[in-house]
Each structure stands twice: as structure tokens, then as C-alpha cells.
Specification:
This protein is mainly β. Helices cover about 10% and strands about 40% of the residues. The protein has a single domain, classed as Jelly Rolls, CATH 2.60.120.200.
Length: about 250
């Protein structure tokens, strides 16, 4: 195992994601214990206390461990071909697909931006089901699934810069879906259209799937809608930690 649990992640912020109820997944590369396989990651431990670890048993698909990937802090780094680390389909189903209130917040740094890259997405039938970051022509979309079912994209509309750190979030409060990119203000809001859950996930929750990007931290809150104050506190904590200026 690699990493030290229990250390203060960001003394300057004086904040822990655990202080907000509904935390279902917390992966922090500077604190989460890793299981390493010759410098590659076979398990990234969940700090929520629920044991929702991200794993990859196939050695050729394991992302690399980068000791100073973002702002001098560790990250995981995929190979832009097929690397991916995953939480189980059961996690994706319970906390993302079937949950009518949830939030996904991820810190990543771009490599060479590709097409159809997934930074953090629940999947079903080979297509994204609910989560941020499906790239199309270097524009990243926030994607969610309605009960119809239909896939809805909230496109940021700005080409992602290479070698740049972003904090992005997708919030679902039961009435609307909001998408954010390096900002406390949503760049897009849409009615969720999900009066009933769209059905169980047939795939896992993918983290950094074949993107060539680095991911340093990922948070999933589920079962309740986090408040604006809680969201702002979390975003400011991450911005301070990773050297990002929020709009």
C-alpha cells in the first residue's frame, strides 16, 4: 500500500469533504492509500469510509502513479489508449444512475485533449450514462441520462487548453442539473427530465478512461442535494489545494 491516511490534506483551507453529509466516494491522490504494481495503480482507496475503492486488476490497463502530477501533488495518469480505474457497477447504480440527487466533482489536468475521453462517468451499454467529461472535438461535455432514456449534453463550448488544471462539477438536485468548470457559477442548467430513475447501470464508474490526463481528486455526494454553501466550500478548498483560480 502507498499513501498515508489521516494526514491533513490542506491546512490552509481547514476543511475536509467528510464534513458534508452524503459523501459516497473520496479519492485524493495525496492521501488515499494506493496499491501499486511496478509503478502502476491496481487500487485507489476510497477515503469516504464506505470502501468504494477504485480498482483495475488487468496490469496493462492500470494507470501510472505520478508523484507530482498537479500543483506538486500526486495524481493518476492514464496512457490515452486504454488505461482506466473503476468503481463497481453496483456503486455506479446506487450512487449515480439510480440516485435522483447527487454531485460529482473532479480535479484533472489535461494532457493532449482527445475525443470521447471520460474523466468520470458511469456507463451503460457502452455509452456514458451520467457524469462529466465526454470530449468532442476538444470540447468537454457534462452528460446526464433522462428517464426516457435519452442522453443530454451540457457543452461547455470552450476548447480545453493542454496542460491546464480544471475543477469541474455536475450537480443534480432533483429538479435540475447544473454543470461547472473552474467556477462557482454554473455554465449551464437544464431541467433533469428524470421523474423516475433510468434503470440500472450495466457498467462501472470509470475514472480517467484512456484520456492521457491526470486526475488528482474525485468526490461523489449522493442521496441528498448538497447546498450552494457546501458546494462553494468544496470548490474553494480544491482551488486552494491545486492552484486554480475560480471565476
Amino acid at each position: 500500500m502507498f499513501g498515508q491516511a489521516g494526514t491533513l490534506l490542506n491546512p490552509k483551507a481547514g476543511f475536509s469533504p467528510r464534513s458534508i453529509s452524503g459523501l459516497r466516494l473520496w479519492l485524493a491522490a495525496n492521501q488515499s492509500p494506493f496499491t501499486l504494481n511496478s509503478g502502476k495503480i491496481s487500487q485507489w482507496d476510497d477515503l469516504s469510509g464506505l470502501g468504494n475503492h477504485a480498482t483495475q486488476a488487468t496490469a496493462t490497463l492500470q494507470p501510472a502513479y505520478n508523484t507530482s502530477g498537479i500543483n506538486g501533488l500526486p495524481s493518476i495518469e492514464a496512457d490515452a489508449v486504454d488505461d482506466v480505474i473503476q468503481c463497481s457497477a453496483a456503486f455506479a447504480d446506487t450512487n449515480i444512475v439510480e440516485a435522483t440527487q447527487k454531485a460529482i466533482i473532479v480535479v484533472f489536468r489535461t494532457g493532449t485533449v482527445g475525443v470521447n475521453d471520460r474523466i468520470a462517468c458511469g456507463v451503460t451499454g457502452g455509452s456514458t450514462h451520467w457524469g462529466p467529461f465526454v470530449a468532442a472535438s476538444s470540447n468537454f461535455d457534462m452528460v446526464y441520462r433522462t428517464s426516457a432514456p435519452a442522453t443530454v449534453k451540457l457543452t461547455w463550448g470552450t476548447t480545453l487548453a493542454n496542460n491546464t488544471t480544471y475543477i469541474t462539477a455536475l450537480r443534480h438536485d432533483g429538479a435540475s442539473v447544473k454543470a461547472y468548470m473552474n467556477s462557482l457559477t454554473a455554465y449551464a442548467t437544464a431541467a433533469n427530465g428524470m421523474t423516475t430513475p433510468p434503470g440500472a447501470a450495466s457498467g462501472p464508474f470509470d475514472i480517467n478512461r484512456a484520456t492521457g490526463a491526470r486526475v488528482a481528486e474525485a468526490l461523489v455526494y449522493s442521496g441528498r442535494a448538497i447546498t450552494d454553501a457546501e458546494f462553494n466550500q468544496t470548490m474553494n478548498y480544491l482551488a486552494s489545494k491545486y492552484g486554480v483560480t475560480l471565476a
